[in-house]
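User: Can you fold this complex?
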Amino acid sequence: MFDFDELNEECGVFGIVGHSDAARLTYYGLHALQHRGQESAGIVTTNGEKFHVHRDMGLVTEVFSSDEVSKLIGSTAIGHVRYSTTGSSVLANVQPLVFNYAKGEIAIATNGNLVNGDKLRKELEANGSIFQTTTDTEAIAHLIARSNADTLEGAVKETLNQLVGAYALLILTNEQLFVAQDPHALRPLAIGKLGDSYVFSSETCAFDTIGATFIREIEPGELLVVTQDNEMCVTRFSEPKETSICSFEYIYFARPDSDISGINVHTARKRLGRQLAKEAFAEVDVITGVPDSSTSAAIGFAEATGIPYELGLIKNRYVGRTFIQPSQELREQGVKMKLSAVRKVVEGKRVVMVDDSIVRGTTSRRIVNLLREAGATEVHVRISSPPVKNPCFYGIDTANRDQLIASNHSVDEICKLINADSLAFLSAEGMIEAIGRPSNEKNRGHCVACFTGDYPTKLYDALEVEETV
Amino acid sequence: MFDFDELNEECGVFGIVGHSDAARLTYYGLHALQHRGQESAGIVTTNGEKFHVHRDMGLVTEVFSSDEVSKLIGSTAIGHVRYSTTGSSVLANVQPLVFNYAKGEIAIATNGNLVNGDKLRKELEANGSIFQTTTDTEAIAHLIARSNADTLEGAVKETLNQLVGAYALLILTNEQLFVAQDPHALRPLAIGKLGDSYVFSSETCAFDTIGATFIREIEPGELLVVTQDNEMCVTRFSEPKETSICSFEYIYFARPDSDISGINVHTARKRLGRQLAKEAFAEVDVITGVPDSSTSAAIGFAEATGIPYELGLIKNRYVGRTFIQPSQELREQGVKMKLSAVRKVVEGKRVVMVDDSIVRGTTSRRIVNLLREAGATEVHVRISSPPVKNPCFYGIDTANRDQLIASNHSVDEICKLINADSLAFLSAEGMIEAIGRPSNEKNRGHCVACFTGDYPTKLYDALEVEETV
Amino acid sequence: MFDFDELNEECGVFGIVGHSDAARLTYYGLHALQHRGQESAGIVTTNGEKFHVHRDMGLVTEVFSSDEVSKLIGSTAIGHVRYSTTGSSVLANVQPLVFNYAKGEIAIATNGNLVNGDKLRKELEANGSIFQTTTDTEAIAHLIARSNADTLEGAVKETLNQLVGAYALLILTNEQLFVAQDPHALRPLAIGKLGDSYVFSSETCAFDTIGATFIREIEPGELLVVTQDNEMCVTRFSEPKETSICSFEYIYFARPDSDISGINVHTARKRLGRQLAKEAFAEVDVITGVPDSSTSAAIGFAEATGIPYELGLIKNRYVGRTFIQPSQELREQGVKMKLSAVRKVVEGKRVVMVDDSIVRGTTSRRIVNLLREAGATEVHVRISSPPVKNPCFYGIDTANRDQLIASNHSVDEICKLINADSLAFLSAEGMIEAIGRPSNEKNRGHCVACFTGDYPTKLYDALEVEETV
Amino acid sequence: MFDFDELNEECGVFGIVGHSDAARLTYYGLHALQHRGQESAGIVTTNGEKFHVHRDMGLVTEVFSSDEVSKLIGSTAIGHVRYSTTGSSVLANVQPLVFNYAKGEIAIATNGNLVNGDKLRKELEANGSIFQTTTDTEAIAHLIARSNADTLEGAVKETLNQLVGAYALLILTNEQLFVAQDPHALRPLAIGKLGDSYVFSSETCAFDTIGATFIREIEPGELLVVTQDNEMCVTRFSEPKETSICSFEYIYFARPDSDISGINVHTARKRLGRQLAKEAFAEVDVITGVPDSSTSAAIGFAEATGIPYELGLIKNRYVGRTFIQPSQELREQGVKMKLSAVRKVVEGKRVVMVDDSIVRGTTSRRIVNLLREAGATEVHVRISSPPVKNPCFYGIDTANRDQLIASNHSVDEICKLINADSLAFLSAEGMIEAIGRPSNEKNRGHCVACFTGDYPTKLYDALEVEETV
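Assistant: Here's the predicted assembly.
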């Protein structure tokens, strides 16, 4: 079966080698990556002899008390935060996964999604493997354990070459930390240094938090092998293939203070907003953004047009799983869940509402209506990315094709469905230019499959589903 | 003794009358007011016969589970959130306070600080009163219980006339809700309606959250008496005195989507930033704000100057008491606590850093240094309010006069102390104009005592301290 | 109103003076007294300058973490555990209660119940007092604060002379610990020493737990004043009245390893069982007791008759508030809540079931039926105390007179109602002899009011209720 | 490596098939088995389509809230409680273990210990298996998944025949419940019925708790296959070998109200005490037992001698992991951890202290000293089992041979070491007779290896250790 929940799996990984405060720095690193996954968190440390593990459902601050971090002794650590999805939110899936095999202990933390995960799993199960989780990551452990290669490095390389899809990967043993990037570099993974210690993180913002210095990004197909005393051997398990950095990281997912390919995400978003203003100006009184991810684009749009940026929408920050959701009845009476419109700002005004993307369209419709109820006379929706017409199979939570509004409707139809006065999307070319990666590759080295349907890899599991459906 | 901790007490209050979902709506209301107090939260409800109470230390989402809200039966409710201070963070102080007296149960929630609280307490203790809290609010209950007035309304009026200072006050009994505003209207308190139900809130943002409509603000010296079936009797316990709305609510404290005196706070802050640009332009490459409270002013500054607003500083959002603070050692190694500078944005740039205020100066110095370490070539600090030279005695957490940097140093000296290339404050006149209250009163009806030393009331407790010191 | 819930209030108190581990020893002391109160627990310590307080609902081990005990600095401590009742199970009632009054801080922990508590409260409220709890104990604080006596010792004595009923009382200030026993000595309170430190406890079992040595019991009407350096001044606030030690402490309430008046409770219970065997022998195969309180009496009964004692009934030990109670449906299907009969032991046997008392009769009926369902051919019930015909107003949870089965039914009627083959109670004289207090006073110095209706004090509050009903 | 921690693993299992309240009844069943394992608890249910799982460290009441039990939908359930050991107290080890393999989901709960667990594990790892736990149970899952048998039943039988040691085993799939007993029947496992539902439990006390009826015990080498509609197919995977029921279940481990082989445990213990009195009478004033496990034997001893049984020792009941352990310093000052002696009972008396066993001797010495400190003039220790000279490899927490006092010392030496006036153990023959299993097999079908060294199976893992050491 094609398991859609697995597609939702966007995550963050963090690792540090040979530092006396490894667990604590990993805690701060994961905290900086919290936006990448709010379902669960975990840290595994090693003192060179054995692992110490703590993992649980919840935010980083909920999972780790000071006591628990103190128990994570050892100078090398890897950590993981996982996105909140409904289907497979079970404790067993919380990463880093930890296994024993013939050669000792091994822990794995990964960001991304395999497109042949189900296929690998079925093959392994047919050969007598048992699985305790429903994640791709467990298949990776089985492949390593079953490899006949002489060394662990050999086994890891053999395994990586069987994986297809997106994977920014940390593999910890009591002797070494392996760090790998898939041959398309679909998910970000950066290398930094803190004193003598190598640090690895899904986003550079974690380096700023802990005071580490950014070195470079890991290259597609690269495998780094770092020993406890911070000797790093740079090798490769595969030639790089067409670079395909996820464009949604810039558009929506990454933190604005992170850099990807040397480009600051906030700045890229402002440029997306400026480009959008150029492509789809609207004569209005006020520009507003959907917080938090669209704020930068909205400011860019405002700067480009000279129309003032105002706080027309505000987000209620509730964090954690303990917030009591309003009942359907209360929501119908007007209790707002996450967003409120600011009446004083939008009443009697023509508004451009900048958002980063439209996926199913239901949220956009709700926000447009919030603005209208607060007195906006016109609501013009401007989207700082092209229409999402195709599902992502590499780890971003979009949706099934049937649920993607742009997959089945024209821009005009969407405009009506979301109750806007006008609607415009950014062009794919405009987007790629605005982000501005200095590259000569196709799409300047971006994966834009969700916009164009042109996937950088074969889609094993998905194809099988379509065949059997 | 003059207890400085008591001065720190900024809070939020919320009340709703005669609604079948009173407790749950109060939960959402308090959640919207969470920024006003993160130490503790409490709700008291009545079904006309008896109180139901739940209070505890922590954020609203930490204090209230769905179960606990469900147990708060009754159609009228008041709630309170309290600021986090060190001295008196004890469970007994968590509001609303609840008492039994000769005529039944009474609950009190208050925002603001009395300047004769210690005086009243001493007088009461000398007459045999016992106190279970260290808050002003308990003195109010004693005064009501000891009043010889025939009716509770009479006792409340008699009591209010003995109070001096800031108090936006909700008093609940099983029959009525009393709502009062001090004669200077120092702290905000708004009246709204949700269907037939009257709603009261420290800020209007709570109305937007629950879908209520703003009616008006309570007037200075006014006392409203609302029965369970939402009949509201508007009366007065005192003639209004010189209106003295706290200017810091606009500058820093209130949520940007709230309106005070019909003026949206975000918009006022943008105007403060524009005025600041007018008064103290600087030739730079980038404008940035100290998140979150200075973002609006920084955008206003950028709009007025045409220099781009960028995300030069970012706040790590950790919420709740469970975050593990970095040790001194880790902080010295570069682990950031709350703010990081975004290297890619500021490196090699001349920066204007807009902040809302400087109190002790230590934070400003730290932020300037963050920007310099991230590569800013010049850091020009622009403050969207005048220098704070005097302590607040009405409930805002500033500090003791000795600790106020502007009380003892010139602007030039402060500039050096915080390591800035230049420093400018907004003028008091510019500030008052920019906020733009439509009023002919002195300072357009603002309290600006912390800037000018001109307090709207006599300072009983503080004077006594100075005399005895 | 006559508040029945207040009658249920059986509790335990513990205090220690001038010991470096005061809080921790109080924790162990309260743990030993846990059987006396499972609703809430609290400790107040003083270092001579200020109080440290921690109190909450729950068992001692639930309320106190190691961290929280560590924060309770200071060398003098008092603690309290409170019985679980439904009516007034609120956080505000958790003792020790702590107050500020004109002369500083004061904390009070008490075991027992006043019979003029409502009367005192009404008089205080009429004079403008406010109450934050629904306990008698708060009235004591008001009386002390309102006293005109020159010294605190004077105020305490003046106050104690206004109290009528049962009270074993600890009063802590930053300078002294006051320890008082009501003039009838209704509730136990023992004095011990641990090194140089005076220790006080409701039961001597707490002394064994912490390694302290028993000195003597406090005398009726006595007031001890202990300073932080363990100087103890023995004084008196009242002449002793007729000693009236609660006989239920021996029968049911105290721990079997405690001594009261120098008599070990387990040994007294065995003698009660022996006396019961003498008064009401039954020709059976097996003797069993209702665990845990009747085990000693059952063994005594077995020893006296030579019939073997067997484990015919077993108690499921679930502790704490987290146990999931079986639904009515499951209980009807046979899921046992607390007690199970052991089929192998009772099947085909004639059984004497020894129990300590019958209050409402419903429990006895259930247990008899458990034994019959497990195959007992005859069930003869033997009770190691006389019939309870009158409510207790001094702090034991019995019930309202209407609910006391022996108040309205003959022994024969009760026998039928509980479905026993025969039923016998111990005689009052037999009980008094068996306990064996070496005293010439009436009833050898026992309160036997619940059996005889002869109360040692006037019953102010109860009388008023009867008059108004 | 020979992992001693694994030997400590005494546990309890419970299962129920086709009952609408399966999870809740399993909760009560596990609660009744709580004494068999206090480290962790878990329940897996199936509704015929998929599993629902909840497992965590802690007591049953700590692990399961009402909410969590409600989420465990499905009419068939298995549950597990696990003993508290230090080495492998990790979440991953909490049973029932749950796996996915080629044919679907599978859950396993087991009581007992394999003596070839390490051997199996090494063989599996050598063939590429990965392990996520450190328990034997995971090896069982691997063997099933790797079996080439056509049916699951075939795979289970093939697997069981590879296991050597003690295992009372429940295996759940979405279609069936498998129940197996090792060919020696080392650990107890009983079959009951509740209405139409089959119920399985380590001890019969769980049947009494939920109102189920005992049917019979599962036979050695038997495999039961129960479908969701309660059809039970009785089959066998092995011929029964010499029955070897653990004698320690009678002596110490099982609950006194359980029956094993139709013999009530409390009654058996009383007979052990009577036999002990016959073999080793002592002229004393008082008989006392070490609570709780020795109480029955002590009463038996007292009955046989006519010397009164008294409560000379009392256990402080603290349950759960939250109890604050006294520091070494406090323990030296006399703070008792678990047991106190009752001075009033033993002072000036000659005491027989009956205990169930002596393992390392340290506890016995401490208890003898407690009695002496409380004033006992003579302490005669009587043990209701023979000296433990050999480690148990089948799941009881004894200790390594070096630590077993009786392995290296004569009875006289032990007597001196524990500071007793005299010491006697029950003879092996006397023990076997007193328990009274109606059997003609060797040792009447008991395993007495820990007393005699005559183990019923080959000791694979242990032998290897001895060889390599």
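Residues 4-241 of chain B form a domain with the Glutamine Phosphoribosylpyrophosphate, subunit 1, domain 1 fold (CATH 3.60.20.10). Chain B has 19 helices and 23 strands.
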